[in-house]
Amino acid sequence: MRFHWEKERLQSWLKDRSLHEEPLCRSGGQPVDWAAIAASPLYADMIAEIRDEGERLLQRPEPELTQELYERFEKTGNRLAYEEKYFERRRRLTSFALLSLLDPDRQDYLQALIGTIEAMLEEPTWCLPAHMRGQQLDRNIDLFSAETGFALGEIIVLLSNRLSEQLRESILGHIDRRLFVPYLSYGPYGWETAEHNWAAVCAGSIGAAALLVEESSDRKAAILVKAVETMNHYLAGFGEDGACLEGPGYWNYGFGYFVYFADLLSQATGGNADLFASDKVKAIALFQQRCYLAGDRPANFSDALPHVSVHIGLSDYLADRFDEVEHPPLQLRARYTDDHCSRFAPALRNVLWFQSEAKRDANWQPGSWYLPDAQWFISRCVSSAGSFGFAAKGGSNAEPHNHIDVGHFILLADGDPAVAADLGSGEYTADYFGEGRYTYDCNGAHGHSLPIVSGHQQQVGEASKAALLDATTSEYVDHFALELAACYPAESGLQGFKRSFVLLKGEKPTLTVTDTFAFEAEGGGQVTEVIVTRCQPSIAEDGRIVLAGGLHLAELTYDAGRFRPAIIERLFSNHFGQEESYYRIHLIAEHSAEWSQQFALHFEFK
Length: 606
Hints:
Blueprint lengths: L6 H9 L18 H6 L4 H15 L8 H10 L3 H23 L4 H15 L21 H17 L5 H21 L11 H17 L3 H20 L11 H21 L10 H13 E3 L2 E2 L13 H10 L22 H9 L14 E5 L4 E8 L2 E8 L2 E2 L11 E5 L38 E2 L7 E5 L1 E6 L4 E7 L10 E11 L5 E10 L7 E7 L2 E6 L2 E5 L4 E5 L5 E11 L5 E11 L6 E10 L1
Antiparallel strand pairs: 1-2, 3-4, 4-5, 5-7, 6-9, 8-14, 10-11, 11-12, 12-13, 13-20, 14-19, 15-16, 16-17, 17-20, 18-19
Helix pairs in contact: 1-10, 3-5, 5-6, 5-7, 6-8, 7-8, 7-9, 8-9, 9-10, 9-11
């Protein structure tokens, strides 16, 4: 389903309503009582986190964004030096704006907010250096310039009577010059037809800002027509199964901004323009509760983090909107400081849309799902022994935030180090998104649990993809099987490669991974099985490796005498620039002239 409303129709709907009267409501449309929220014990932990951060920031000077820091990315490829200061400034904006609403008598919060806004208006660009790359300052729009304009638009509406007219006019002028004028005059931008988070965040933020502060209904409608069309492209990036190939963190991000915009659009048009009226949108809303393996640990394929908290406001809003969507466990609520970018829109809605008295379970419910468009298989097992999760993926090696990982899998228990791990997202640098992307352990085939065949690893590209052979779920056993030969170069000698997973869901589940290789009739081939783990492995005896976790002990067993085992400890830089270690278990089989070879790896929790 594609959404489309003519400019004239949108304009007629917009003329009948004004967001200035009650632009930001509680979920369900109730007006906001900030004093009641601030005083409620049900919000105490949430509000305390905001206050603690505000008090910390009051003791610190306004971060200085220097030209030297800005230019460092072009000179060295380092993003973190500038972005650390940039996002600290956004943290001040978000914290002092929320605290000015929660504690209106605290003039120090308001003055700190005004100081931060004035500093942001002096920034030559709201874009990050990594997203400029030669673009003109007043003509480029990236994720963070769009978010900044949206945030300032909401702050004007929420705190209008407490900001000077001069400051309000200045903010409006900057939003117009940095967002509305280039959006209407200097595009199209690449993200306008993107099928990933950039489309939703950029178009959603600009559309939302227009709904909030643009006075001309004609101009507002023109912006909305463009924004809605970009949302169609964003939704086209999902299959009917609703899976977000970029992972749950980017689901929070991209789909979150889709929802924020859709909510404001619905309010502004009296429900006539309804971006939620789609089975695909409903399926996307269900993705969150299907992608978690245990606690805050998702199937973190691609550039997803190993631990992802839930945005409680977004989650509760969707649970109110769609019957099948669950209110998530409260213990998984993202803390206020979890978002290192400190985005205002989700932080605000985590307060406004939180359903403090909603019925929630203490843990995710057990279940198994196959998401056919993504070719993800996910199983969550819960017993008196604990929570256990398994996930495996097919798909292709040409996906958004792509990793070379077709046939890769994850196995974990509770909060222990993953028995079979996905490293997730590494540190974003220029080279991380450049020619050197697949040299990074996080992204390359060598950082995933995938066999090396006759010295060859999987290759990147759309042709490197899986074919589904089986995906069956039941109460006691799950089966998932893929054909993966297309992922390897012709030089590997493969004619066929079937990888099958069998998960037995007992008190403590067991997983058997069976790889069956078919080589060319002459010559055969040599296989090295690879397991990526965050547990410390030790070779107990031939055919058995112990994987020491925390609460649980796991064993990897295989046919004794068929492999020469090797354990390699590796270091990598995680998404936040911190060095972490992991282990690669290599099970090296001797070269065989047999055209067919089969190997079974058995994982068991003890």
